């Protein structure tokens, strides 16, 4: 029943060999209505414009916050593991023994070094290579952030250094 009702409302015909005039008539009849054409878009000539305003660069979805935090986390995770292996101090002990001063100094240097190219209009993707891509940097930073949290949680539960 459902198929037969569709068949009654359908105006679709198939003809195998038709004359040229009939093909033109059929083409004009079958052709769906066209939408109004939009104005042509200008072709992009080069890389997209990147905002150099400080508030745009540092916005929640801007290019700087996650990259800076990821870079700091990568340095912090490697430093925390290295100091723990060398001196046997856990993460919390490292922070209490002059670790805050090192953290602030590193944060300022890395933040300024990361912001200078972005504020000059250089996009992060334009500086990517084959191996060292911008996506790889983001993922390494995310894993380093998780690593620091995991290291702190494990040392808290264990009650001392991880190693």
UniProtKB/TrEMBL annotation:
Transmembrane segments: 68-86, 98-119
Sequence ranges of Pro residues compositional bias: 33-42
Record GO cellular component, one term: membrane
Coiled coil: none
Mode of membrane association: Multi-pass membrane protein
Subcellular location(s) per record: Membrane
Origin superkingdom: Eukaryota
Keywords: Membrane, Transmembrane, Transmembrane helix
Region (Disordered): 22-49
Protein name (database record): Early light-induced protein
Protein's organism: Lupinus luteus
């Amino acid at each position: 029943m459902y198929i037969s009702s569709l068949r009654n409302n359908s105006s679709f015909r198939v003809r195998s060999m038709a004359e040229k005039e009939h093909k033109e008539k059929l083409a004009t009849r079958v052709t769906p209505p066209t939408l109004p054409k939009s104005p042509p878009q200008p072709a992009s000539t080069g890389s997209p414009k990147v905002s150099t305003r400080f508030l745009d660069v540092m916005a929640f979805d801007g290019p700087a916050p996650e990259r800076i935090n990821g870079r700091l986390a990568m340095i912090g995770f490697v430093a925390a593991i290295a100091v723990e292996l060398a001196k046997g101090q856990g993460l919390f002990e490292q922070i209490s023994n002059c670790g805050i001063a090192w953290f602030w100094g590193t944060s300022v240097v890395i933040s300024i070094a990361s912001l200078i190219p972005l504020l000059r209009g250089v996009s992060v993707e334009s500086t990517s290579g084959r191996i060292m891509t911008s996506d790889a940097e983001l993922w390494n930073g995310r894993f380093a952030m998780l690593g620091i949290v995991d290291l702190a949680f494990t040392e808290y539960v264990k009650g001392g250094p991880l190693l």
